[in-house]
Design a protein that fits this description.
The complex is a heterodimer of chains A (293) and B (133).
Chain A (H helix, E strand, L loop, with lengths): L3 H57 L7 H4 L6 E7 L9 H18 L3 E7 L1 H11 L3 E5 L9 H16 L5 E9 L5 E9 L18 E3 L2 H75 L1
Parallel strand pairs in A: 1-2, 1-4, 2-3
Antiparallel strand pairs in A: 4-5
Helix pairs in contact in A: 1-6, 3-4, 5-6
Chain B lengths: L2 E6 L4 E7 L1 E6 L2 E5 L6 E14 L2 E15 L3 E6 L2 E3 L5 H17 L5 H21 L1
Parallel strand pairs in B: 1-7
Antiparallel strand pairs in B: 1-2, 3-4, 3-5, 5-6, 6-7, 6-8
The chains are: A alpha/beta (293), B alpha+beta (133).
């Protein structure tokens, strides 16, 4: 049985931990709201970009000079994996699940005899993958200290991928990120970005029944639009991941706060029991002392 | 008689409202868009978008390039940045031009992609200075 003093210190320390976790939960909740708003605001651009891209892709379809960003290099040898994680921990399984998914995918591709290259976004992913797959890491990008996700960062990542593709260093690129489904559920998503996946079947473009005219011409526009579309996809993944991170942290901190509460309850019970036992013991001593006289 | 104009940046929807006519800086010359325009997808250079209400220009915005989709009912502009002209400061615009010129000088001329990007930036900065002066 620990002493009364030890119990008291223990209760106080759990109480202050609880204060911290509950504050972190509040912070995560407000950041989550902001991240969700940002993701919401970014949606119109992505939708319109998608619409234009499909109209263009339909019009150059079958052309032998179709750009590699759209159709790939025609090979399937070197895979680039872009693992998007957070810069901070204490968010439950958020970072670990991305690390695990990346590792499994890399192992599977290597078992098939393919070369794997990895770019990590976020410090946690880098730390996780550096332990096991350090020879495949080609770059790591940190977004630490940023209050919000900027489009220019997505553009930089996009440019990096485009130049690797142009240099023939990669054939296929896949984004691995946590898609925000709800506050308690983040879904690990593997999204192929190069070559661009075909649009879902039966999903036709609404062009108002008319074909578009292009200025200057389809291919020039496409060569500009594709890198931008790539950046938009990366941007979307970053936003989803940011929202997911705050959601995951909120849930994790909520659990931690509840666990701390349970622990305080249990410790307080023990403390009171020990205190009562002490009093009883003292009373017995007094009474038996009085009887002995 | 109005066409629905939308200006969107990757981060948010900047403007969405019906206008009588809009003049956009297409890559091969300014283009006026009225209702019933033939469907087009155009590339934009850096320049100003003029919004017309009747015969009067109600708003002028600077865009640094991008794309536009025109259909008989609407005109959608995808731009990285769009700033109302009144908010641009001349000194800022000139500083950007100087930076763009320096970047163009420093760019690797053997790499056409790099050169094009630098040239675009330079032209967009020039258009910005012209727009404010």
């Amino acid at each position: 049985m620990p002493s009364l003093k030890a119990l008291r210190t223990r209760i106080n320390s759990v109480k202050s931990t609880q204060k911290i976790t509950s504050a972190m939960k509040m912070v995560a909740a407000s950041k989550l709201r902001r991240a969700q708003q940002q993701a919401e605001a970014a949606r119109p651009y992505a939708e319109r970009m998608d619409r234009m891209l499909r109209a263009l892709a339909a019009s150059v379809a079958g052309s032998p000079t179709a750009p590699p960003l759209l159709v790939g290099t025609g090979q399937d040898k070197t895979h680039l994996l872009i693992a998007v994680t957070a810069d901070r921990g204490l968010a439950g399984a958020f970072n670990a699940s991305i690390g695990r998914a990346t590792r499994n995918l890399a192992r599977r591709l290597e078992a098939e005899g393919k070369t794997v290259k990895i770019i990590t976004v976020g410090r946690k992913g880098r730390d996780y993958l550096r332990r096991e797959l350090s020879s495949r890491l080609v770059d790591d990008i940190s977004l630490a200290g940023k209050r919000r996700v900027e489009f220019s960062e997505a553009q930089e990542i996009g440019n990096r991928v485009t130049s690797m593709l142009a240099a023939g260093e990669i054939d296929v690129a896949t984004l691995i990120y946590n898609r925000f489904q709800s506050v308690i559920a983040q879904v690990v998503t593997e999204q192929q970005i190069i070559p661009a996946p075909p649009p879902p079947e039966g999903d036709t473009v609404d062009t108002g029944g008319a074909m578009y005219d292009f200025e200057p011409d389809e291919e020039t526009i496409l060569s500009r639009l594709l890198p931008q579309a790539l950046a938009v996809q990366v941007f979307r993944a970053l936003l989803e991941s940011a929202a997911g991170e705050h959601g995951a942290r909120m849930t994790a901190m909520d659990n931690a706060t509840r666990n701390a509460g349970d622990m305080i309850k249990r410790l307080t019970l023990n403390y009171n029991r020990a205190r009562q036992a002490n009093i009883t013991k003292e009373l017995i001593e007094i009474i038996s002392g009085a009887e002995a006289v | 008689m109005a066409t629905n104009l939308e200006i969107v940046s990757p981060e948010r929807l900047l403007l969405s409202r019906p206008v009588d006519m809009v003049v956009i800086p297409a890559s091969e010359g300014d283009m006026g868009v009225l209702e019933g325009h033939t469907p087009m997808i155009v590339m934009l250079r850096g320049g100003t978008i003029d919004l017309y209400d009747g015969d009067k220009v109600t708003d002028r915005l600077f865009v640094d390039g991008g794309f536009a989709e025109v259909t008989p009912e609407r005109c959608t502009v995808l731009a990285n940045h769009a700033i109302p002209l009144v908010e641009i400061n001349k000194a800022d615009a000139e500083r950007r031009l100087a930076e763009a010129e320096a970047a163009y000088e420093a760019a690797d001329k053997r790499d056409t992609a790099v050169e094009d990007a630098a040239l675009d930036r330079l032209q967009s900065a020039r258009a910005m200075v012209e727009a404010v002066s």
